[in-house]
Amino acid sequence: MKKTRSKNVNLTNLKLLFYELTKQNSLDYFTSMMNVIHISAECYPIAKVGGLADVVGALPKYQENSGVKAMVVMPFYDNAFTRKHQFKKIAEAEISLGEKTYAYQILRLKKNTLSIEVTFINVPELLFKDYVYSDDDTERFMAFQIAALDWILSLKQKPSIIHCHDHHTGLIPFMLQECYRYKELNQIPTILSIHNAQYQGWFPHDLMHYLPAFDISHNGLLDWDGVINPLAAGIKCAWRVTTVSESYMEELQQDANGLESLLSHERDKCVGILNGIDTSVWNPETDDMLTKNYSINNIQTGKTANKKWLCKEFGFSLSKPLFAFIGRLVYEKSADLLPEVIDKALSEKNCNILILGSGDKAIEQQLEELKLKHPTNYNKCIGYDEQLSHRIYAGSDFLLMPSRVEPCGLNQLYAMQYGTIPIVHSTGGLKDTVTDVKDDGFGFRFDHVSVQDCLDTIQRAVTYYEETPNLKNIRKTMMKVDHSWDASAKKYNDLYKSIKTS
User: What are phi and psi of 312, to 5 degrees?
Assistant: First the structure.
């Protein structure tokens, strides 16, 4: 009797093992067959305004590494990248916005030097500009979305997933679901990733005729608070909605610039997936933009060499801790507080502060004027310089991120990768990725966005810098944390599979 029961148990275990292996093989096969198209207004290194570009430039590459075929579709801009490269035309056609018709071409690089495949939508009259965003975005991104879908409609092999990014592509889930022209595509699952819900692409109802024909009785899907809201339409119509951190998904149900109740209503199809960073680009050991490369094994000499370059370039004393801010000078980044914070910090604290960024002209002017008052321990670079940003991450001791809103934040991840200690407001992805040193972490957090809270935290950091003999060990611990896209890409792939196999 005992012998028989043992055989039954073994047979059951074998069946379960066979089932699990078969299931896993099936999922692996499905992953290898998956064909994902990312549609975005930005993609690094082609066109970058913010973190959206970094995500779209990295996620497809890591998905490719895991066996998923992924490409990016984006506008063709008149910028440094497109002027430097040659392109081939693979298709051309026309689109209509209301009564006006625009010619467009589908372009690819003649020689693809990128690590991902990118398809460009060239609408010369609308998209081929020397800027990414401006006052004419409604017409420009409407044309982009329609042209992208018309091109997808022409493909023999349709994508398994269409992954849309932010409001510039938020009307695609609606058009696939509702527009007669795209009936053939309406069974393709759509994902909408919200990188920043503060920007929603609003435009008036009298421009609804720009859209391809659909049942007008369904126009409520486009409306939110009396206007057409592309981000809201995307949230309503996408099969799944993601945000770039778990905390940001929770915060959006409380503060989403008017979309709180919608996101609460749709929460069952929403998920937060923390962004990663592209460690082939952001790696102090291989980064060719640095003065000196370094790893965990020689972090002190590496950071000192890069700090020396910054101090020489901007007139700082090497002995003082160097605080840096890199980012857009806008309200959501709490840049309006920076002039007062910097002025008081440099009057009271033993430190240097360096700013790299652009945005609000009034803030830019205030930051310019501070140079006259603090000539030896403050400097700024108004604008953006990719190489300089890498050197600042490598050479600074602390990175300031007092953001009011930070859906994920990538700067703090770059800083930690380079052994630079982040100082952050406890919000969104900053809260998810930075643990305070008082809790055995490797950063500094504060709970309220105010000048005083910023100053108090800077003082904590200065004291920590002066009194912590094992600062190198804290930096080493920070650099060991894996913030690469590998784990995040897997979560997106699993999300895709959960849709296709449900």
Answer: -70, -40
